[in-house]
Each structure stands twice: as structure tokens, then as C-alpha cells.
Amino acid sequence: MKKFSRNIFPDSWVMFKRCLIISLRNPETLLTATLIPFFLILLFGTVFASISDVGDYNYIDFIVPGIIFQSIAQAFQYSAMNVAADMTKGIIDRFRCMSVSKFAVLIGHTGAGVMRGIISNIVIMATAPILGFRRQAGFVDWVLVIVLLLLINITFTLIAVLCGTISKSAEGATGLLFPLFILPFTSSGFAPVDTMPRGIGRFASIQPMTPMIDSLRALTLDLPLENSLMLALTWCIVLSVVCFAVSMRTFNRK
């Protein structure tokens, strides 16, 4: 058996293109990345707007970051499924017999997952103004929004990749991602933390999505950031490093 080569960049590019081709051959993947974000923001921005009170904010302005995270959770289930399929159907064994960098396979899946997440983000940011979202950010704020969204997409794609590497089936991988579907609703994404019941509010204040959502909301609405951006960046870096390290360790053991 040949060892994995160190041609990480060309190999990662090839693996990335492979994952994109797989996505293009599965129309439901693209539909999930585009239609679900559209219908989520349409639902929350119209149906729930009339029954929700978020203080001085328009509800659509308040919930856009939460919708982004909910769509991220939907989009990245395919990353977990694809990684699990590769791990359980013999594809990885074939790569191990070739001169392929051991990092390239997971990097390729991560890149494709980030691409799907970015598509979801674009759909939301393009649809929100139609429903009344008021973008008040300046140029620097938008640069920070783009950088933060990129980091968030990378972070949660790596979480999905980790679920794919440790799961014994593609279906099991999506089950491991279930908490990601719940966390946006137990954060500041759809309601202020101080309006929640005490236990849920305490959990919302310490979970990683809340500072990320607060940072996106502050940047897009030109509000004070306080310490939310630093917390968001810290969470992104820590989760990314841990998930990638554990994914590689699991990948090498299987």
C-alpha cells in the first residue's frame, strides 16, 4: 500500500472538484442550499413577524442572522453524509492505494460544504431586503461580515465532516448533526436572550451560536459589537481546530 503523498494543494483541489461534481449530480443538494433558506426567511419574515416582539428592532432585521444559521445546519448535512459514504463504502480505501495526500480528502469535502453554505448565505442576504431588511452596515462592516460568515461556514462544515468520519452510516451522520438544527432556536437568533425562560436563557448566553449571531446582527445593523465578535472568533477557531484534528485522527484510524 502506498503512503499518502504530500501534494496537499493539488490533491485538495482535485478532491474539491470531485465533491462539487457529486453535488451537481444530486439536484436535491442544490435545492436544499437555495430553496430552504428562501422559504425559511419567507416564513419567519412574514408569518411570524406579526406575532413577535423584539423590542426596538424590526423582526426581519433581528432574525436574518438566525435564519443564516438555520440554513447552514440544513446545508451541511450533505457534507456529513458524503464523508460517511466515502468512509463506509470503500472509497477511502481506494484513495489509500493511491498517491493522495491524507489531508486532501477531508479538505475537499470541507471546501464543497463551505461552497454550499455560502450559496445559502447569498440567497438569504438577497431575499431579506425584499421583505424589509434594512442593511445599515458600512464597507468595513461588510468586510467583517464576509470574513465572519466564511469562518462560520468553515467551522460548521468541519463539525459536519467530523460527524461523517465517526459515523457508521450516512444516515447516522445526519442524526449526529441534529443538535445543530436545535441550537439556532436556543440562541439569540429568533428572540432576545433576556426574554427567554431562565434555564434556556442561561444556555443561550453560553452556547457558541449566540455570539456569532450577535456579531452578525451588530455588523449588519451598525450596532455596538461589545465582546461578541471576539467570542465568535474564539469559538470558530477552537471548534475548527478541534474538529479537524479529531477528524484526521479518526480518518487515519479507519
UniProtKB/TrEMBL annotation:
<dbReference type="InterPro" id="IPR000412">
    <property type="entry name" value="ABC_2_transport"/>
</dbReference>
<keyword id="KW-0472">Membrane</keyword>
<feature type="transmembrane region" description="Helical">
    <location>
        <begin position="175"/>
        <end position="193"/>
    </location>
</feature>
<feature type="transmembrane region" description="Helical">
    <location>
        <begin position="229"/>
        <end position="248"/>
    </location>
</feature>
<keyword id="KW-1133">Transmembrane helix</keyword>
<keyword id="KW-1003">Cell membrane</keyword>
<dbReference type="InterPro" id="IPR051784">
    <property type="entry name" value="Nod_factor_ABC_transporter"/>
</dbReference>
<feature type="transmembrane region" description="Helical">
    <location>
        <begin position="59"/>
        <end position="83"/>
    </location>
</feature>
<feature type="transmembrane region" description="Helical">
    <location>
        <begin position="142"/>
        <end position="163"/>
    </location>
</feature>
<feature type="domain" description="ABC transmembrane type-2">
    <location>
        <begin position="28"/>
        <end position="254"/>
    </location>
</feature>
<comment type="similarity">
    <text>Belongs to the ABC-2 integral membrane protein family.</text>
</comment>
<dbReference type="InterPro" id="IPR047817">
    <property type="entry name" value="ABC2_TM_bact-type"/>
</dbReference>
<dbReference type="InterPro" id="IPR013525">
    <property type="entry name" value="ABC2_TM"/>
</dbReference>
<feature type="transmembrane region" description="Helical">
    <location>
        <begin position="103"/>
        <end position="130"/>
    </location>
</feature>
<keyword id="KW-0813">Transport</keyword>
<keyword id="KW-0812">Transmembrane</keyword>
<protein>
    <recommendedName>
        <fullName>Transport permease protein</fullName>
    </recommendedName>
</protein>
<dbReference type="GO" id="GO:0043190">
    <property type="term" value="C:ATP-binding cassette (ABC) transporter complex"/>
</dbReference>
<dbReference type="Pfam" id="PF01061">
    <property type="entry name" value="ABC2_membrane"/>
</dbReference>
<dbReference type="GO" id="GO:0140359">
    <property type="term" value="F:ABC-type transporter activity"/>
</dbReference>
